[in-house]
Design a protein that fits this description.
This protein is mainly α. The chain has one domain: Orthogonal Bundle (MetI-like fold). It has 12 helices and no strands. The protein is elongated and about 75 Å long.
Length: 279
Amino acid sequence: MLILKKFAQDKSAVIGFAIVVAVVFIAVFGPWLAPYPQDATMSHLTRRLRPPSWAFPFGTDNLGRDILSRVILGARGALKVSLLVVGASMAIGVPLGLAAGYSRGWLSEAIMRVTDVFLALPQLILALALAQLMGPSLESAMIALVATYWPFFTRIVYAETRRLRASLFVDALEGLGASPTRIVFLHILPNAASPIIVRATIGLGFTILVAATLGFLGMGATPPDPDWGLAISQSRTFLPGAWWYATFPGLAILVTVLGFNLLGDGLRDIMDPRLRRSR
């Protein structure tokens, strides 16, 4: 209850939570919320590039498709990509961070040196290179994002595991004969969960942004998928006349990423008592 009370007092975190809930709701019920759900794939050339109106609040694109419907339907794809990428990155990075943080010697050094190599490379450039090698598709973009995002979880979990490894309760467990697996997964991992949750929350928004960037550059989703980044890319030919074509998908990316960032910052303030004392 104390945590919920502190969370409710953080206005920016509450706003972020409301945005995230709204995006999840739109993603789940998108086909029923979209005024023209068939516009995900069908074209209507007789109504192409119409400005915002009562019939089409966000206007139409170059193929006459309702932009509002495609923005709503694109929320599911954006959320799906971010959840799968962050989940896979955690599945790789967290065990590696635990292994590197608890063990000593060559295993720890090998894991962290490989992690440092990936962290030293600009994530977007590395993701672009990997996506280009595998061919432009949504699956290639997701694999490229996972390959560039797992080191962030490894580094965070490694630092927390190292800190907890020197705690008295770990020494006591080792003295009682507890196995390393039991110590790591039943005692160290739960105590390191806070930074993992915060990183995952912020990572969801960041992944949506990078995935949209890949789609904009032609390395992500392919037509006729209702993808936000792809929509902005396709709108470039018709700017500045059809300003609505790029504006509303761009606002969808902006608001969604902002919501995850605000929520992540609020969770960090609540779940990290060291940070609260420093303020």
